[in-house]
Amino acid sequence: MNRKIFLGSLFINVVLGVFFIVHLAKKVNASHAEPKKDPNKIAMNVPAYLDRSNEFKSFPVAKDEIVFLGDSITQSFIQEETQIALESNNNWSSLVKNSQIKNRGIGGDTTLGVLNRLDEVIRDRPSKLFLMIGTNDIGLRSVPVIVANYKKILCEIKGRSPNTKIYIESVLPMNPDVTHGEDDNGKINQLNKGLQVIALSGNMTYIDLHSKVVDKNGLLDARFTWDGVHPFGEIFSRWKSEVDKYIF
Predict the structure, then answer these.
(1) pLDDT(198) > 90
(2) Same domain (yes/no): 182, 205
(3) How far apart are the first and last CA of the chain?
(4) Could you tell me if 54 and 28 lie in one domain?
(5) Are 158 and 74 within one domain?
(6) Residues 85, 134: one domain?
(7) Which DSSP state fits 62?
(8) Paired strand residues for 142
(9) To the nearest 5 percent, what fractions of the chain are helix, strand and coil?
(10) Which of 45, 77, 115, 124 is the most exposed place for a label (fewest CB within 10 A)?
C-alpha cells in the first residue's frame, strides 16, 4: 500500500515538474522574443520616408495653396503627371501647371503617419486639401480603427484650419490577381462607405475615384497597374478628370 502511495506521489510530482519546466521555458522564450513592432513606426523610420518628410518640413505648405495628402499613390500621381508633361512638352497636365498645388504624398504612409505630420501641412492654412490614405492601413488594422484615425485627422484639420475645403478621395481598389496576395477589396469597400458617411456628416466633399478605376469584376484594372496596388497611365487620367472639377 505504501509503495502504491509512493509511486502515485512520484508520478504527480513528475507531471508537475514537467508542467513547471514547460511553463518556465515559454516565459523565457517570450522574454527574449522580438517585441511587437508598430508598423507605422517602421514606415516612418525608412530613410526614403524620413528624407521626404524632412524635405516637406523645410518647405511647408503656404497660405491658400492646394494640397494632395496621402501615401505613395498620391506621391506617384503628380510625379507621373510631371514626367508626362516634361516628355510631351504640352499642357496636358493642368495640375503640374498650377504652382499652387503641393504634393504631400509619402510612400508607405498610413493614417497614423499623416496624423503625425499634419502640422507642416495645415500650419499656414491651405485653401484646399485632397486626402487619400488607408491603403497601407488595410493589412494592419481594422476598418473601424482606420475610420477613427480618419476622424482624428479631419478634426485636427478643421480645428486648426477651419476655412480649408476638404476633399476625401476614396481609397482605390486592389487587384489580387496581380498582387498574388489576399483580396482586401471587401475591407476597402467598407472603408469607403465609412468615408462617405464622414464626408456627408462633416460637410466635406467625397470624391468617388473607386468606381472610375475598377474592371468588370470590381478590381483595379490590371491593364493600368504594375503591382495590383499602384496605378498608372489611364487611371491617373481618370483621377485627374475627377479632381479637376474641384481645383478650378
Answers:
(1) yes
(2) yes
(3) 97
(4) no
(5) yes
(6) yes
(7) P
(8) none
(9) 55, 10, 30
(10) 45
Structure-model confidence comparison of residues 15 and 205, the more confident one: 205
Higher pLDDT, residue 222 or 39: 222
Angle at 130 between CA 125 and CA 134, to 5 degrees: 120
Q: Are 80 and 232 in contact (CB under 8 A)?
A: yes
Residue 132 CB neighbours (<10 A): 23
Residues 10 and 88 in one domain: no
Rounded Cα distance between 135 and 183, Å, is 13
The rounded percent of the chain whose pLDDT value lies above 70 is 73
* Range with the poorest average pLDDT among 1-10, 60-69, 172-181: 1-10
Domain span at 29: 1-33
Which phi and psi (to 5°) does residue 131 adopt? -115, 125
| More reliable by pLDDT, 166 or 21 | 166
Q: What's the number of domains the chain is made of?
A: 2
pTM: 0.77
Angle at 196 between CA 101 and CA 204, to 5 degrees: 45
The pLDDT of residue 63: 85
